[in-house]
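Regression check, manganese (II) ion case 303:
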Amino acid sequence: MRLALFDDYRLGVVEGDQLADVTDALDEHDTEWPFVFVPRTIIHFDRVRPRIESKLASARRIPLAQVRLRPPTPAPSKIAAAASNYRAHNAEMQKYFAEGRFGTTQSGPQHLRSGLSDVPGRPPGERGDVFLKSPSSIIGPGDTILLPDTTPGREVHHEPELAAVIGRECYRVSPSQALDYVFGYTALLDITVRGEGDRSRRKSYRGFTPIGPWIVLKEEISDPQDLDIKLWVNDELRQDANTSDMIETLAEIIEYSSYCYTLMPGDIVTTGSPDGVAPIKDGDVVKIEIEGIGSYSVDVEAL
Ligand code: MN
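Current build output:
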């Protein structure tokens, strides 16, 4: 099942190029922030799902092309993100840092992957870091990334990432349990200002976290570590990889994130970008596609 929010944050089940409006199946509904019905629907999905399914046959069908898709989890309590989780991306970043391309003296991503494991029972070693993006940076398909600064030399980069939406409260879980806490998957863009400074600022400007086009429930994705992931800017293919290239799996990222944070229903855990990151500029159209999930585009506008 694929669950979309559309127009006035109505709930739709995506079927091919149509969407069935099943908003009436919900216990409750809101049309504005903080969209409490979203985590509550996820928490109580075992109860809501049969009602969705029984409404499906008679639900109003709308062509996807005629709706405005909204971010499918519009106000999570947090977005936990893996840093530097693809080797080829880490290599390109090392090269850019060595060239001084971002005007920074900070050390490269390899530095971030050593000795970080403080998870009991897990040996230190090549462990990635996790960080938080602000939920207020979330936008949906067709929305606009706002570039905060047009200073020459400033680079704002695209990072396409497989993201999991958490289904129930998750604290200190093992990798073997971690995927049990996943509600579904979505495609996320981790838009990033390069250069010095804290990631939580550089990755949290307005519009810096597009998600969508919907949530594909976990049952539809047999292996999250074998999905093609692609990104285009203005129809030029810029990134083309597979989630099998991740250094740490989604399950390991959830393990580490849940060691640090308590993951709540509707929260997002995102898995890092493959190589091919590059600048976006005013007027660009950025498209992400993940196998088994779907694709969408967002616009880029300079402030
Ligand atoms: Mn990222």
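Comparison notes: The CA atoms of residues 89 and 275 lie 4 Å apart. The two ends are 38 Å apart (CA to CA). No diff flagged against the previous build.
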